[in-house]
Amino acid sequence: MHRRFAGRPPRRRGNGAGRLVTMVRSADGRRARDAKSSSLQRTARLACSTAVAALLFSCATAVSYEALPIEEITIQQIEEAISAGDAVGAIQDLSAVGRLRTASAERISSLYRDAEAVLRDQFFDAIEASDFVSAYAIVRSFELLGGCECIDSWNSYAVLSALADRFAEEGRRPASLAVRTKAAAVAPDRKSALRSLAADALEWGYPSFAAYAKERLAALGAPTTGIDVPPPPEKGTMIGGAVTIWVNRGIRIERGVGYPDRVIGSGFFIDSEGYIITNYHVIASEVDPTYEGFSRLYIRNPDDDSTRIPAKVVGWDRLFDLALLKVAYTPVYFFSPAVVNSYKPGERIYAIGSPAGLDSTITSGII
Prior knowledge:
Distance between the termini: 48 Å
Low-confidence stretches: 1-68
Oligomer: single chain
Helix content: 40-55%
């Protein structure tokens, strides 16, 4: 009954003549639909016949051409890739050609040198532009190829350290510490790199990174004196680092009735500058190019539930269902993201958030 009355008023029962007219109209409607279906079927058969005829005709009248040897096509493609600046792709193809021995060793060596020269120029252009992400991708390519003296003393650790320094100068401390963590894993002197990571993490207020560095140092048999990681705060304090994400998508029309279209999710402050981690699916309408409609992103003010603070998306990853937001607000607490592998089965953990908009929510369980 609810579905019947949702979209239109109920019909009044008429007399017998009225019902007869209704039956005649229904029969006419069925005949019209049958005729339309038959017409569509004829159209489909005609389209299939036309497609098959075109396919057979094209096969019968195909233009013949002289095929080049596969090794020549590959070498031509490699030369074109080098000219276009795709040195990494060219090196990959050269590796395949070398294994198949379909070209002379002298020619392959010459193309290798040409590709390395292009890659070297791209590397130093990236370094000069402070594009250390691209520089890291190139230096890793060189390292996987066995190294190259053409980039002087640069290696993965040096590039990652430069990227971490740039993030620190820009005030992006969590990103700087995350890159330093990765750099410490490939550092020539891992102990020194881990001590530096711990010192910066404690100075900037990210104890989880310091705990990770301390744990790694202990595993290497190095002393950890001076790395005093503070104990975790009370759970009530940590709740202050969670926030409600609110996406207003206007009004949704269903069966002629308008409903507020809202997306609500949990977010977590990761630094004192107002950066928040949340799920991509919560803010998808803000960045998805296929979405057509109204969308406005806010967070609910932790100090006042009745007010909302505008936020913006500064980064996202759809595959990992993660997004990074920025809001003009200083949290009372922020979480310190880090990789800590000390959790064990049976250990108690806590989940904090604002499911369905319920602020200051906390629950617990065991691993």
